[in-house]
Amino acid sequence: MAPMTLSRRRVVLGGAGVLAYGATAHWSITQRIMRAEVPLYSETVVLAGGGSRLLVPVGQLDVVVPGTRVVAGRPQTGRLLEDEQEWLGTCAPWVRRGLDAPDGLLRSALLDLRALSVGLPVSVAGWSDRWRYAWPRDVSFVASALARAGHPEHAARQLAFLQGVQRPDGWFEARYDITSRRPPDDRVAQLDGSGWALWAASQLATHAPDRAVELLAPVRRLLVRSSRRLLASLDAQTALPPASSDYWELVERTLTLGTAAAVLAGLRSAAQALPFVGEMALADRTRAASDVLARQVRHHFGRHGYPRLLGGSAADAAVTFLVAPIGPTEPDVEVLSAIDRAQTSMLRPAGGLAPGASWKNDGVSWTPETALFAAAWAATGHRSRAQALLGWLGEHRTEAGSFPEKVLHDGRPAAVAPLAWTASLVVIAQHELTRG
Fold first, then answer.
1. Nearest 5°: phi and psi at 335?
2. Average pLDDT value over all residues in the chain
3. How does DSSP classify residue 2?
4. Alpha-carbon separation of residue 174 from 36, 249, 260, 344 (angstroms)
5. Is the pLDDT of residue 249 over 90?
6. Residue 27, exposed/middle/buried by CB under 10 A (0-12, 13-18, 19+)?
7. How many CB atoms lie within 10 A of CB 235?
8. Whole-angstrom Cα distance, residue 366 to residue 254?
9. How far apart are CA 401 and CA 33, in angstroms?
């Protein structure tokens, strides 16, 4: 992929609309921009044979066969290329039709996903040392992307791993070492993991409907434990879940939208998935609880414009959890308006988004949060808005074509590359665009 130039970045910002360009100008004029410097840890990761993987150092593109995630110049290179092409060739028809698109977005995202999951017990967030773990949230989004892409067995293996590491009480740790299946540190457990696991199960049933019973039966325990955990978490008076660490991975003393919306998505998804494993009564309980929680989220968060914190005011990317592809397919107009306001308030100088309006003022765009908005706009019928964000993501890949975690104030990709959550969301958004 050609190096990013300033002029091309301006085109991308202009393509995102006057709002994005004007907000970027506002940044530079009225605010002191902290210009964080974060290195790019790698160009991509490549499969190197025998189940091994190699991180491709920045600038060393000769290590990778162009346009692939395969190591170059090795005796096994030919076979690895055949395996990669075979995997792509067995994807769903909509994928095969989009693989040769000029922007290469779908191909990049699928190759990133494959490189971070194939042959492993479960997908990892990234291949850099501190990201070579399985976060239940990331795993759930990978499962959704794989199911949509036409690899339901691969998606089901993600759920099987989650079932194997889930605590008997239904809680998940923040992340897991994929070999020991234990948490690598003492981060607090996260309630949203149970919600995301249920959402992933529902996604698998939705996108492989003829095989839903077959694929979900082996993870019945995951569905039941997760559902019971979410039901037990709801306060008897307010029907809201307790404060818990969410995707920001901070110790929270106040309930966040990221937790409330993930629990709501989990309960709604449980009502859809549990009947496939014969749990009709539990499905009825989760459906009823989701109706009550939806009203409470609307009352407690909605009256303040759906902020990150209960009773707060700053917007958060978790507002996208309240619409499809995570929330209902028929979006609330007020929620869509909140998503629109959130995108404006979270805009960063390079044109991407921060995790929230209260995130530190360092000038850094985050690709997973940007992709969350792309998926939400795509799933709610706002094609041009989704395409503008996807175009921005495409223009800020590494030179090897992988999606990084971050983009600096001047448009340089930074931190981990590839990142499974971003790649998954790009696949999900692209799929939603094909369905609209």
1. -70, -45
2. 93
3. P
4. 26, 8, 17, 30
5. yes
6. middle
7. 11
8. 24
9. 28
